[in-house]
Known about the structure:
heterotrimer; B: Rossmann fold; 7-stranded mixed sheet; 9 helices; about 35% helix; C: alpha/beta; Rossmann fold; 8-stranded mixed sheet
Amino acid sequence: xxxxxxxxxxGFGGQGVLSMGKFLxxxxxxxxxxxxxxxxxxxxxxxxxxxxxxxIADDExxxxxxxxxxxxxxxxxxxxxxxxxxxKKNGTLVINSSLVDRLPQRxxxxxxxxxxxxxxxxxxxxxxxxxxxxxxxxxxxGVVTVEQALEHFGIIFKGKKESIIEKNREAFLAGVxxxxxxx
Amino acid sequence: MKIVAxxxxxxxxAKFHYCPGCTHGIIHRLVAECIDELNMRENTIGICPVGCSxxxxxxxxxxxxxxxxxRAPAIATGIKRILPDRCVFxxxxxxxxxxxxxxxxxxxxxxxxxxxxxxxxxxVYGMTGGQMAPTTLLGxxxxxxxxxxxVEETGYPIRMAELLAINEGSAYISRMSVNNPANxxxxxxxxxxxxxxxxxxxxxxxxxxLSTCPTNWGLGPMDAxxxxxxxxxxxYPLGEFKVKEAL
Amino acid sequence: xxxxxxxxxxxxxxxxxxxxxxxxxxxxITPSSEIAxxxxxxxxxxxxxxxQAESELAAISMVYGGASTGFRVMTATSGPGISLKSEGxxxxxxxxxxxxxxNISRGGPGLGGIQPAQSDYWQATRGGGHGDFQIIxxxxxxxxxxxxFAMEAFDLADKYRIPVMVMAxxxxxxxxxxxxxxxxxxxxxxxxxxxxxxxxxxPNIVNTLHLxxxxxxxxxxxxxxxxxxxxxxxxxxxxxxxxxxDLVVVAFGLMSRIVKKAVxxxxxxxHKVGLIRPITLWPFPVEHxxxxxxxxxxxxxxxxxxxxxxxxxxxxVNGKAPVEFYGRIGMIPxxxxxxxxxxxxxxxxxx
Lengths: 183, 247, 351
């Protein structure tokens, strides 16, 4: 079950958690990989927490589901409480430290932290928080390369205003830069 | 020799199965005559209900469909939306239309479906043997209101024409009766108007027709006509309740 | 064609459009509503018909009317909606009207929950409504198959004049995967039975009422004979590693992919395990199971239910081997969980 990479995105509804997952899905598809995007749906969608699981593989994806994702992108404290224990042994945990006020308890995980909301606010781009973290993650982990993701920006944000696409690109690149400097 | 009367082309030669004195036969003929006169036989699709007229597909000489109980207006919607230039009508009784099919008729009217509904109201479930209908009159004895329909148990008979006339989607709504020759003539005119309303694309159309059920009312044919006149017409007034201006 | 990222529900709608479906009649229900929403967006632009019906009863009746015109029409809902639609499905089956019915399944009974489930298996494969009838039921396992099976469903429906259901777990409706779009279907078989006005022909009648006992029996034989032909010709399944398998796991839908992953893992650990994935739930792939039962020592049906398909597995195995069951409801068993179950069984039996 190792050839598949599974990334969990979790946070509050409205933090752009599902969009982060979709972004990665598009980027992976563009990179010629097999990919699936699986949201927690229904009542969970309306307020409260949101999460989705992205599975990326070179071969056919056998299961778009897992109990134990190899990597988790955690946007708020309740999501850390809920998912910390589920991440695969020696997996990767990425935390938005602006909204998570504790450290992870597990010692086997590779942990990366970033005060995402703080940086986004400083950039004057509070809505770009999710792209910041995603940029940092891809830079660090290479699940999909930064270049591949940038290539597909236009497709992913198809139909959106050019200025919005540009803002997202800026946030994404700032995230890439942050990872280079801090992680 | 000059032909003064003959079977309309829109009726098959099959013999009606209806009881002696039942007015379904008259209403079938009126519908068929109107469709002939409008020259629409080859362009018409009829939908019969569950009830005494369940076998109407044997009598009408054009494409017919037999519906589940109460669902005729929804089925008509499915057909008309796909074949908008066809003449689509449903033929329904009071149990079918005003009880189990209440949602379908109200929404077809509200959506302004360009279909025509021939609603035969004889104040009783005929085919199942004379049970209380939503249009059964207060005090009327049926097999499920054996002591007479009581307000405190079953509420009031529903006036469908008035109810559907409220809907904006309704373009033509009337209530007619076939209890005497003059009213039969008026009913025919009204059916034609309803069909024309549909073909002009004005919206939903329905003609409610007060009808007799001598068998389940326990009356002879002449007494049944008299009962209709004395009991039904006072509660179910005749007339046109909605005529969209463009008509 | 170039791959497009799509939600399962959108893929099924797109598949229907590609197959030439011109009308959708439905009523909103989670987790199927995206199908209706997709059609509501598309049909006004394409010149087709979208009607949000007042009820599930009305929606299936609109399908009945629409299908009787000979055009390709569909509806989509979830389990509680299929319960209400059962009336119309029985009528469609007897009137032999082709159409597509989609069940994006959730857990029951009653209102249950919107979590994915396979507990409408009996409802789908036993006809669901009153009377002796069957409908063809296809169970996709990927978003690509959601699109492909919607198309296949219309072909089977027309070929056999039968309603065809595509049934998928809610998860499959909600998840996204890249999908290869297909060529639009433009050729259809003739339907001389359609009601569309009797110009230059005798009137057609669509009817399910048969008051003569002899004719009623005759009609049931006509349907029964048709079902025999479908059973003989249309059983479909995928099989993996069954040739040498001591234990054959049977699973359908998205569940089968998860099971496949578990089976692969268990094989790596040296246990001889195989998988049969029924694609047609009706007709059930009896032949595939029978063949596996010649050598397999045990079967295991894994379902997101309390155990429904396991009945059909037992009938097909016909006493040749024991048939075990493992299921969850409300949640999907993970590959790890299933692998544990398989290993437990294998160790118990010494495979």
